Amino acid sequence: MENITVQDVRKRLRDGENLNLIDVRQPEEHNEYNIGGILLPLGQIEAMNTDSINNLKDSEIICYCRSGQRSMMASVYLEHMGFKNVKNMAGGVEAYKKLS
């Protein structure tokens, strides 16, 4: 599992890159502030319910949450399930918001 900075994510989004962002927070958190990720709460990943992203097994995936802790766990789970290029957005949404 590799970390990616919020600065790198923001730059890539501003440059128009189509990133595979996975938001592992709860639905209410996702609805409150979303940077464009697919909602897949950590509990669903832990239950190995990743059907919605199985087509991304060989693609870069960037997981994020509020602070970077849940997304770190999600990244590890995804790697154990065979996803090849998973990154954790260090600092999470809280750090991302501070860039504004």
Could you describe the 3D structure shown?
The chain is α/β, with parallel strands linked by helices. The protein has a single domain (2-97), classed as Rhodanese-like domain (Oxidized Rhodanese, domain 1, 3-Layer(aba) Sandwich), CATH 3.40.250.10. The chain is built from five helices and five strands; from the N terminus they run E-H-E-H-E-H-E-H-E-H. The protein has a five-stranded parallel β-sheet.
Short account of what is shown:
Helix content is 38%, strand content 18%. It contains 5 helices and 5 strands; from the N terminus they run βαβαβαβαβα.
Which residue ranges are poorly predicted, with pLDDT under 50 across at least 5 consecutive positions?
A: none
Distance between the termini: 27 Å
Query: Main beta sheet: strand number and arrangement?
Result: 5 strands, parallel
Please tally the β strands and state the result.
5
The structural domain count equals 1
Remind me, CATH topology? Oxidized Rhodanese, domain 1
Helix content: 25-40%
| CATH superfamily descriptor | Rhodanese-like domain
Mean pLDDT equals 95
User: What portion of residues belong to β-strands?
Assistant: 15-25%
Please count the helical segments.
5
H and E string: EHEHEHEHEH
CATH class: Alpha Beta
Question: Which overall shape is indicated by the principal axes computed on the Cα atoms?
Answer: globular
Largest beta sheet: strand ordering: 1-5-4-2-3
Structural class: alpha/beta
Just name the CATH architecture: 3-Layer(aba) Sandwich
CA gyration radius, whole angstroms? 12 Å
